[in-house]
Amino acid sequence: MRRTISAMTLCAATALLLAGCGSAEPKPAPEGGKQQPQPAASSAPAAGGGAKHDVTLEVGGTGKTAVMYSGLGSGFEQQTLPWSKSGTAELTAAEQKVGYLVSVVPGTVTGSDGKLQQAPCTIKVDGKVVAQSDGVTNVKGCSYTIKQ
Question: 77 vs 24, 93, 98, CA distance in Å?
Answer without folding.
Answer: 24, 31, 29
